[in-house]
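Problem: given the chain below (68 residues), write out its structure.
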Amino acid sequence: DELNGYKVAFVPFSNARPSGKAEDFLSGFVSPDGKVRGRPVGVTVDRTGAVLVADDTGNVVWRVSAAR
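Solution.
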C-alpha cells in the first residue's frame, strides 16, 4: 500500500475553483523500499515566488525555486 501524505501536489485553479487534476509537485519522501526520508507538513510561498515546504521528519524547510 502506498503511504498517504508523503508528497506535495499542485492543483490548478481558475476563478477560485479547481480547474484541473492534481499533479505531483514534490515527492521522494519515501524510498522504494518504504523507508521514510521526510514528511511534508506545511507549504507556503515566499516573496520571491519560491515554494517553502516544512518537513517534520527531517526537521528542515525545503525551498523550491525556478531555475535561473
